[in-house]
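Researcher: Sequence recovery benchmark, item below. Answer with residues only.
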């Protein structure tokens, strides 16, 4: 008995030996293929080829009696490792964004005055009534304690009511999670939806936080690249190719940071249809919906089967520092996200939630003044940019312009660093948002005067750049 057990164990070690040697051989082959692709100037990632490889493996798996999910996991792992061997796995790009932030802080601490067109923070003040609500909630004798990780009942109900009124969608409070800003809704939404061997789809250019969260979840990331020449339009065929390869979660930023693009209604509906067909969940980050200058359609206005809707009090009510946002999804997904809240931040402080309830009572006309200010700034920025050797699309919404320089050898990171050191103007380099070395992002979260001064100095820097 014991000798046959030993024999079986030895056999397993022999099988492991064979598997590992074969994997090594597969990686060597992948490297060779990578080299050949480079010589022929072909892209490393080819989702159609990947789809065929996975399909063939699934067929074989079925034939020999392997669990389908297991086969898919193994194939995703092998493909990801092959891409790593070819030097094509995402590294994360938030360093470009937050690195610039740190540099500006450093310069300011040395007494320099910087025109900050890099940060995604509007200079709007929240209304005094919101602060009063927080003060009252703090009270003299009130104990400030933990509250539910999902958010207090009154705020979840207020959010559900607001959504019902705005989108005509019946939402139960157990479909709402109160989060530490929209950022935590994005973070917990991604971590609750994907596992190590599933796939997330990002539309380039993207807010780098999405990629970093997906990297943290160790999930495979696929990208659909969009370009200015095509009006930042999303190619449906590319989405289908990615879905064919097994996308689990697709992330949309609407209106977009950094391009300001709003996805037209018909296009959003088409994307939703594709996602429904393939059981793909759409995480729709709509934190900039309060600044929409063209008709805007939310994922909540579509027939999307599986969604995680993200919004925040930061931009709409000038409450960035309060750290309060929310997610809406199915009760099951909300429970998974709530767990992430429980084991990390515990809860959003109660007095902040009380202030958020007050913010929701502010009438739309008052809130619209922020949007009007942003629209005016977009106009001013675009007028100023028109005289420069830059191409850009006027934003439909949001608080950024994402121009592209008309120079062949333009490198936006070098440009942003020189602009900061010589002109004392900070912008975010295009590399922060994907493969966009000729673009940079200008934030309009500052005064009209700063925007004009900043763009004038960008013009000077561009002249010097040309030499
Ligand atoms: C696209 C996008 N989503 C979400 C957020 C999160 O904002 P907050 O966490 O302040 O709500 C930001 C902030 O800049 C953003 O740009």
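Model:
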């Amino acid at each position: 008995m014991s000798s046959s057990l030993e024999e079986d164990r030895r056999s397993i070690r022999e099988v492991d030996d064979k598997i590992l040697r074969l994997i090594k051989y597969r990686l060597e082959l992948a490297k060779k293929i990578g080299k050949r692709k480079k010589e022929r100037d072909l892209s490393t990632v080819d989702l159609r080829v990947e789809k065929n490889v996975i399909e063939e493996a699934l067929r074989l798996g079925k034939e020999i009696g392997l669990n389908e999910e297991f086969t898919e996991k193994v194939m995703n792992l092998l493909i990801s490792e092959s891409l790593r061997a070819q030097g094509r796995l995402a590294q994360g790009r938030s360093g470009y964004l937050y690195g610039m932030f740190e540099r500006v802080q450093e310069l300011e601490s040395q007494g320099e005055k910087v025109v900050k067109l890099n940060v995604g923070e509007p200079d709007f003040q929240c209304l005094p009534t919101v602060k009063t609500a927080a003060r009252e909630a703090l009270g003299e004798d009130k104990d400030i304690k933990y509250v539910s990780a999902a958010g207090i009942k009154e705020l979840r109900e207020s959010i559900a009511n607001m959504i019902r009124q705005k989108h005509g969608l019946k939402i139960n409070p157990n479909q709402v999670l109160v989060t530490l800003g929209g950022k935590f809704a994005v973070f917990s939404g991604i971590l609750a939806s994907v596992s190590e061997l599933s796939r997330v789809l990002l539309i380039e250019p993207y807010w780098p936080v999405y990629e970093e969260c997906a990297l943290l979840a160790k999930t495979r990331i696929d990208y659909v690249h969009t370009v200015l020449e095509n009006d930042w339009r999303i190619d449906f065929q590319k989405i289908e190719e990615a879905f064919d390869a097994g996308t689990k979660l697709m992330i949309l930023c609407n209106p977009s940071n950094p391009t300001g693009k709003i996805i037209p209604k018909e296009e959003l509906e088409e994307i939703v249809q594709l996602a429904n067909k393939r059981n793909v969940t759409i995480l729709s980050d709509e934190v900039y919906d309060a600044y929409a200058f063209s008709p805007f359609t939310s994922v909540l206005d579509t027939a999307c089967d599986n969604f995680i809707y993200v919004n925040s009090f930061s931009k709409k009510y000038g409450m960035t520092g309060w750290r309060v946002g929310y997610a809406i999804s199915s009760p099951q997904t909300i429970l998974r996200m709530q767990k992430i809240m429980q084991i990390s931040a515990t809860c959003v402080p109660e007095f902040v939630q009380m202030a958020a309830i007050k913010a929701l009572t502010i009438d739309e006309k008052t809130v619209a003044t922020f949007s009007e200010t942003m629209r005016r700034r977009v106009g001013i920025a675009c007028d100023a940019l028109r005289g420069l050797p830059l191409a850009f699309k006027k934003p439909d919404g949001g608080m950024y312009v994402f121009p592209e320089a008309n120079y062949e050898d333009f490198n936006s990171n070098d440009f942003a660093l020189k602009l900061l050191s010589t002109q004392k103007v900070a912008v975010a380099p295009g590399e922060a948002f994907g493969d966009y070395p000729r673009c940079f992002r200008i934030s309009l979260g500052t005064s009209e005067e700063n925007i004009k001064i900043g763009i004038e100095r960008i013009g000077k820097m561009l002249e010097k750049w040309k030499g």
